[in-house]
Structures are given as structure tokens and as C-alpha cells.
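Sequence only, no structure available. Ideas?
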Amino acid sequence: MNVSRRTYLRCALLAAGAAWVEQGGRWLQALPLGLPAGVQLWSVREQMKTDPDGTLRKLAEIGYREVELFETPQFPREFRKRVEDAGLRCVSGHFELRDMKDPATIAAANELGLSYMILVFPALPQLENTSVDANFDQFVPLYEKISLSDYKWNAEQLNHCAENLKRHGIRAGYHNHAIDFKDLGGTRGFDTLIRNTDPALVCFEMDCGHVIHAGYDPIAYLNEYPTRIELLHVKDLAPGYHVSTTLDTEDKDTNAEIGAGSIDWKKLFVTASHYGHVRHYFVEHEGKMAHPPLEAVQISYEYLQKL
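Reply:
I predicted one. C-alpha cells follow.
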């Protein structure tokens, strides 16, 4: 029987008791879910300002293979090349609702090679055409009063955006914050969005850190909505954090490197593996940390390797 070198290597690696995947012609030790690890570039935002190429190369050296953007670069095609030259791939990006409707921003997402455009926080009807990100603090009081009807409006908007984005080969999604879990008369905004969006068009990126910050369990949400959560923000909080459902929680408590916080990541990834619907995950650190950003994301990556 003739056995190819590739088949022989695969069998040998499996026989050694290790989990390995082939990526870009190279064999890499598999991480949780057998997926390449990603990082949300917000984690290293200051380093990206001063030394973007060096920072991207360092992320790749650590072992990351995918990145998620927190803003649209001024020159998308050039930025994509820099990312790919470093050995990384742009998979997803965070956007405001108005950007998800903007033809120029959608074109930029295509140039970047994004598979996902993610609504990063709920929009408000009265601010639909306002750049909230540029004056975030000014609008926090309005967001604290967000209503159930506002979430239903967001679900409707997401469905419309998703139909258009699908024609461009991009999937629409939603990223939660702690505010999405505040009580709205017996329900929560996050659940309302899930139940009122089209499963064929809209997916969800569950930020595990924001879920626990609101006093809920991300593993329970994976069990409740196993086919809707397609991406994860692998984020954790140091023990002793304060439960809060306000909008801007990340600076109020200390973030923790993965493995040094409050979430049982082994159980979470076992649960996600059972359902098989998570396609990507991104390590994210924000707010106060015990270590400098690049050191922190390396510690988190090394913990994921051990899983």
C-alpha cells in the first residue's frame, strides 16, 4: 500500500497524542476547537499606532493567525497587505450601524478581505446618522436609557443590513456589551436581538468578559443559543469584579489574562466544541491589566495552547 508523506505525517502526529492542523502548508499545534487563534487589535491599539508592522509581526511570532479590527483603516488594501505580510489574516471588524449601511465602508471591508462586519454596540434611532464612536462619552447617558423597542429596532436594522452584506460576501453579526443584559421587563437586549434576527443572515460574537460583567454565564448562553453564536471574544476579568450592566464597564475592573481570571475556559471550549458552530475566536484585553499588552496577549495564547 502506498502512503503519501502527508498522510504518514498526519498519522504520526495523531499517534503522538497531539492535536495538529495544517495551515498554509505548515503543521501547527491546534488550539481550542481546532481553530487558529485570533486577537482583537484593540488589545494592542497603542502599539499599533507607534509600530504597526512590528506589532503585527510580534502577534504572528506569538502564534496568532487571525486579527479582528476595531476601526476601518484609512487605506484598506495597503493595511491588508501589511497584515498578510506579517503572516496574519483580517477576518472580522467592528462597525457602527451607519457604517454597515455605507457603500464605501462595505467596499473597504471587501478590500480588507473581511468575512464579518460586526455591530459593536446597539444603535439608537435618534442617533442613527451620528458618529457615536467619535463622541462616545457624550452619548453614554442616552444609552443607559435604552429600551426594549430600541433593541427590536436594532434587530430589524441588522436583518436589512445582513441581506445587503450577503450580496457582498460578508456576514453580519452583533457584539455584546454588559448593557445588553440589563433587565428590560423580564427579558434582555441580547436575547431580544437573537430572537428577532434571521438565523440565516445574522450571527453573534459573544464577548465572554462582558457577559460575566453583567452577572451572567457565557457557557449557559452557548447552551441556550448553540447555533447563533459564531464568534467569541475570549476575554476575562480578575476575581472580585463588580457586576454591572452599564455600557462602559471595561475600565471599572481589572481584566485578566486568559487562565488567570474568572471563567472556566476548558468547560467553555468543550461546550462550544459539542455544538460545533463557533468559527473564530479572538483574544481581547481592555482596561487595566497585570502585564503590558503584548506580554498579556502572549500569556493568553500560551494558556490556550495548554488547553
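The domain at 20-306 is CATH 3.20.20.150 (TIM Barrel).
Hope that gets you unstuck.
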